[in-house]
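Friendly challenge for the regulars: who can give me the structure tokens for this chain first? No prize, just bragging rights.
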Amino acid sequence: MSDLKNLKLLAKGFSVLYVEDNKALRLNAGKLLKKFFDKVETASDGKEGLEKFKKYHYPIVITDIKMPNMDGIEFASHVRKIQPDTKIVIMSAFDDKDYLFKAIELGIFRYLKKPVNITNLANILYDALVEIKHERETKLFYTHLNNVFNYQSSMVLMMDDFKPILANDVFLDFFGVDDVEDFVNRFKNIGDSFLEHDGFLYNHGTIDCFDILELNEKKLFHVKMKNAQGEIRHLILKYQLIPERIGHSILSFDDITELNLLKLFDEKQTQNDDKKHDSKAMFDLLAVIKRNSAKIEVHNYYKGLSITNDALITEVGEDFITIKTSYLQEKAIQFERQTVLISDAFPSAIFCDEVVKVGFENQTVVLKGLKFSNSSPTQRATIRVVPEEKHTVSLFLGQNKFHGDVSIEDISLNAIKLKLNAFPAGLEKGDEVNIDIVLELDKRPLIINTKATMFRKSKSKYSFSVVFIFKESKKRELVKYITKRQMAIIREFKGLQNG
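First reply, four minutes later:
Bragging rights claimed.
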């Protein structure tokens, strides 16, 4: 390596200690080294050099052998005991085999004969820096592998500016390669290994996977790749930056092929509820989310007001999960007695209709009755509100008034959901009805008469919920009411913080 510019680039951020009893050589060498290294320290003998090394453990030490007070061999032996990883370069004007053998026993990095040739020194320093960086990256990799990815089934890849530098055996076995260099030679860019699949991460058009990952640290992504045997595998990908190491990051992959979730990301397949209710696959996926400490979103409605906060999954059982979320979200869950979980890692929203326990003291909620849902709170197109208790509503089928108990569950600009104690005989989807509504706006009655068509119905143990779509636009009357009602509900919900 004769290119001194490359040495300067590689030496950025590194320091060196130069020990030499000849003052003129020491000064000249110090000036030369400062052209490459950020920090250069010199010493006149081994004793002074050792004192300086004790204060600052230099990664590279260059020392003469024959010096007063303490020679280079004794100095090097002390350095080796203090910092075994330091690269020591010994210089000598003599061909003394005894010194050479002692240097070999100490594990000296290089033995350089005086007078020193700049090119030879540059080559040695470059080789030392390359080895130091590799050792540091290896140590860093395995430290984070143990601390962050402490489960053996994960594939782990460490990168520097998105260039692979280290990988664990599981990753190498998956691709059938001997080492990272072999992987790079075969695959160039790991993003190109991600296969196209609806809802998954892969390179396409102007979309580059690494651009997406940079903006979404710790977020979970679904990817599809072929292994060395040509089998298509479904994996959960997580991208994480390494603290205090600019440009360094880790990709981890959890293989979840056995959960058989690929079909759930096919839009046609997701219409089939039976295939989406695979409870074991869902709980295994939730376990992956928990293991990665990835955030999910929790959605609830308080009288039509959307309440959304982040949460973490703290426990996954056979038929339940425990989440940790905010106090206000707990209040919303307690009020609604159900909740919806959202994550980019889910093929669809997860609906939970059984709230086992709300623990306000530790901000946890235990949920059961989990299942994938076709609908999602994020897909709700209009604002719905629950009206004040002092409202009246009448339902007419033709000229005949329905004489059962009727109340409004919620109302929006284009629809209304009514609660009926009995279902009117002969009423079917698409049938037209007349609805008379009396609400309260600014302490005065707001009267709305409108035609509507039946959209859908659902049945509970004691009543029916029926949704009607307004045939005529009632925005003029309803916009002001819904806006003011929503503000009142917000004030009411905020008041729950005090009890």
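Confidence is low (pLDDT under 50) at residues 268-277. The chain has 14 helices and 23 strands. Your move, everyone else.
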